[in-house]
């Protein structure tokens, strides 16, 4: 399960990486034929993947000519063509508009999905569909769960999958996103559910890694095992250490 940073921090990362991205694009006519043999090429490709992931979170169509103009000015050490305050204001507006667009699209998706046969909507807004009921234990506070899952955005983009890794994952109850926590408390070992999680029960307006802000998340979840009481308790806060300065006779001891 992904736990990451705020949307604005992701925006800053995207901006810090856009210069090398555009430089690579401007120097390579056939991007699809890029060779990934040398370590430098592989590292460059990894950088491109990160940039693309972060740029997607802005949820707007960038203007290629403007991007390359900015790259060229930066490489040549020129002053920006527009004031930095204007740049910051534009970025904030674009980021906010993209988040608003995602929220609107998410609400429409949830409204349509809840009308489907077999879909149950809880009081919190979580939507689920049971594909296998299960017959084992149900997890609660203090338990560790072992699951298989695949998480996608509503456009079908897979952002995380233990199924694809062919390795189940384990999570402590109470330390996962709200939508997961609520669903797992209703499931029994052996159950397979399809979850549709509103952004408010996931990463809200923060986003997370490849997940844009205000994203509705879709999960296929299979509860494999519940380890009762196996979740590690939060580490206790150590008591403060008090140092007493000795004086007089005590200091001589």
What features would you describe in this structure?
- This protein is elongated.
- The relative contact order is 0.15.
- It is α+β, with helices and mostly antiparallel strands and 253 residues long.
- The termini are far apart.
- It has two domains: 7-107, no CATH class; 110-227, Chitinase A, domain 3.
- 39% of the residues lie in helices and 17% in strands.
- The model is unreliable at 2-30 and 239-248 (pLDDT under 50).
- Helix 1 (7-27) crosses helix 2.
- Strands 1, 2, 3, 4, 5, 6 and 7 form a seven-stranded antiparallel beta sheet that branches.
- The protein has helices spanning 7-27, 39-57, 64-75, 84-113, 162-165, 178-184, 248-252, and strands at residues 119-121, 127-132, 144-153, 158-161, 169-172, 192-197, 217-227.
């Amino acid at each position: 399960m992904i736990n990451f940073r705020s949307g604005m921090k992701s925006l800053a990362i995207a901006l810090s990486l856009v210069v090398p991205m555009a430089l690579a694009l401007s120097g390579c006519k056939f991007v699809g034929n890029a060779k990934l043999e040398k370590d430098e090429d592989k590292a460059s490709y990894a950088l491109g993947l990160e940039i693309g992931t972060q740029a997607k979170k802005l949820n707007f169509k960038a203007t290629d000519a403007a991007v390359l103009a900015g790259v060229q000015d930066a490489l040549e050490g020129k002053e920006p063509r527009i004031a930095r305050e204007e740049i910051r204001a534009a970025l904030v507006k674009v980021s906010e508009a993209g988040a608003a667009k995602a929220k609107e699209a998410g609400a429409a998706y949830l409204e349509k999905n809840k009308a489907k046969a077999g879909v149950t909507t809880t009081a919190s807004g979580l939507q689920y569909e049971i594909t296998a009921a299960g017959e084992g234990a149900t997890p609660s506070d203090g338990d560790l769960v072992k699951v298989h899952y695949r998480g996608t955005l509503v456009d079908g983009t897979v952002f995380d999958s233990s199924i694809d890794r062919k390795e189940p994952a384990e999570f402590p109850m109470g330390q996962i996103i709200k939508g997961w926590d609520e669903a797992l408390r209703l499931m029994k070992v052996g159950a397979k559910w399809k979850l549709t999680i509103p952004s408010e029960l996931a990463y809200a307006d923060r986003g997370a890694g490849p997940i844009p802000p205000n994203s509705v998340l879709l999960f296929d979840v299979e509860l494999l095992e519940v380890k009762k009481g196996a979740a590690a308790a939060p580490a206790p806060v150590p008591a403060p250490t008090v140092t007493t300065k000795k004086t007089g006779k005590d200091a001589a001891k």
